[in-house]
Amino acid sequence: MYKEDSDKLIVEYKNKNPMELIDLATSMSSISREFSKRFHAESYGAKLYVREVRNGSTIIELVPVVIGQLPILIEHYKTIITFVEQTIIVVNWLLGKEDKPEHITREGLNNITNIVEPIAKDVGSQINIGSYNDNSRINNITINYTESNAIQNRATKELEILKEPIVGLHEKVLLHWVQAKNDIKSNAGDKAKIESITNKSVKAIFDKKDLKQTMLYDEPHPFSKAYLVDVKVETINNNPTVYKIIKLHEIIDVED
User: Fold this and answer.
1) What is the side-by-side strand order in the sheet with 47-54?
2) pLDDT (tens place) for every residue of the chain, 256 residues total
3) How far is it, in rounded angstroms, from Cα 192 to Cα 195?
4) What is the distance between the alpha carbons of residues 100 and 91, in angstroms, rounded to a whole number?
5) Is the distance from CB of 216 to CB of 199 less than 8 angstroms?
């Protein structure tokens, strides 16, 4: 549910040239992923929804919504304002203006890289990300073409620093199914993605049969869920080849 005076996030892409649709979609989905990553617990699972697309360059108004909950649950947490404040801190750090904030992750660095991608490709363009309440702007950040490229270059270097060996145990990573065979006795044909490891689909096997039962057969719609799991990764030429699912921590609803 949503009220007119609720907090909202307005993202404006002031492009000089037409944007590639995939770049815009990836940028917006990365904003959504970053919001959900930071505030899943605090906001009762609130997700960003498009409320309005305005005339202009590309102006998109987003609001946090908890389906089936009262708006007051969202308003009390001021998640939109905090989200923009934290984004400003991360951007300023990547531009060399502030010290490194806590809890920087590979996923967060990939998200900020994707968010500014349409601007990094378009000389003279910029993106404005602002939080608003009752149509009054609370805070805002503007990132131009030069800054977008600087952010991506610094993020790439930081990703190399954070790079961990792929092979071995990865704890509490988010897995979603790409395909699964309807045979509880067989692991053939089961493939999954863990985007914090690789964007490629990888063969998945289970340490115990009851894990497959829980993750694929007890769930009526397993492809609309994400699974927080511990996995052991096996590689060939440093490329993930097999995920062995060791433990399931949580099942999370995801948007279609």
Assistant:
1) 47-54, 58-65, 7-14, 126-133, 136-144
2) 445 556 889 999 999 999 999 999 999 999 998 988 877 645 456 678 788 787 667 888 887 766 554 444 445 447 888 999 999 999 999 999 999 998 899 899 999 999 999 999 999 999 999 999 877 899 999 999 999 999 999 999 999 888 767 889 999 999 999 998 776 666 678 999 998 888 899 999 999 989 999 999 888 889 999 999 999 999 998 789 999 999 999 999 876 5
3) 10
4) 10
5) no
User: Which residue type sits at 141?
Assistant: I
Q: Is the pTM of this model over 0.90?
A: no
Give me the count of residues in the chain.
Answer: 256
Q: Which of 225, 249, 246 is nearest to 176 (CA)?
A: 225
Other CB atoms within 10 A of residue 135 CB: 8
* Coil, strand or helix at 26: helix
Dihedral sign from CA coordinates of 110, 202, 164, 157: negative
